[in-house]
Amino acid sequence: MSKEYRSLSVLCKQGAQGRAFAALSLLAVLLTFTSCATIFSGTTAQVYINGDVDDTLTVVTSKGVYDGLLLPATVDVKRRKLNGQHIQISSERLAYSDIVLRSRTNTLSIVGGLFSGVSLVVDLLTGATYAPVQDRFTIKPGVPRAQADSLHRADSLRLVASLEAERQLQARRRQLPLKYPRHELRAGLGFGTCQASHDRQKMTDFYVEHFQLMGDFECGDIFGDSYLQTGLEYHYRLNRRWDVGGLVDWGLSSDGYDHSSSEQCRFFVAAPSVRCTWMEQPYVRAYSRVALGVMRHHLTFEYLPSDRAFPVKLTDRVKWQMAYHLTAAGITFGSANLHMFAEVGYGCLGVFRFGLAALF
Hints:
This protein has helices at residues 3-34, 36-41, 107-115, 117-126, 145-174, 197-211; strands at 44-51, 57-60, 65-69, 73-78, 86-90, 99-100, 103-105, 130-132, 136-139, 183-192, 227-237, 242-257, 261-281, 284-303, 312-334, 338-347, 352-359.
């Protein structure tokens, strides 16, 4: 290999090394610049304090405690969570008000963030993104410490008195009146599956399977083939917790099938009931209820054979049985004499029930 070729190879290698060094140097400069706010501003900020004060002060900042300080002086504060930081000033003779800091965005952090997202992350972690809105303060001597303590105690007593007055006002608003309506008359509407649904379902399942029938879709089917009910109730309040009374309720369920077949189920319920109130505020009451009585259930099913002009009534049966209902949770709300109510439960009154109540 000739000397000229070896010299050229050496020069090429040196050139490549130089370019790599230059690239690494540029990368280092960029990485340095990406966190310029942290490098040039640091993680602390300085606050200058002055004033016509000849006391030896104790100054407490987020960065540390400065004892035996004479004004003018400069103290350090942390840039992290700068907004709302307090600088506490005290002496043995006089009381001073705190200095409360407000923050702004550090311009260097914005410049670094424009060139690299790493800069913004680094500055956020170190707190260098913030700077004080005001970094020079002038303080005035306060009142003597004994007088300040007396004023503080007076302010504390006034605060306690105002809080107690507010608490008593809230208590009066929540207080229930000694006299309240004893009688309640209700009109309600309920829907959903109920105690009578079991017998109805047994009847319709038998005929649908036997004759291979298909149900006709109706708007009410979105709730299932359930009963729609309406009824009246009366309750008498023995005390704040217990009510006794009774109810009467009427329910209806009907559905159509192909071949002009249909079923209809009606029932009537009469039952005494007991309610227990477990939460009561002015105009709002929550309760649970148990009712036990009697039900008359009337089931009919009509089927139209292919060789007949009129449907044949295959079932026309009346059944008496014990009725029950458990209201898991009910709530009433309204004025002193007129309430709306809503209930969730299971039994002879369906799953959901709502209506109006008059109190007297």
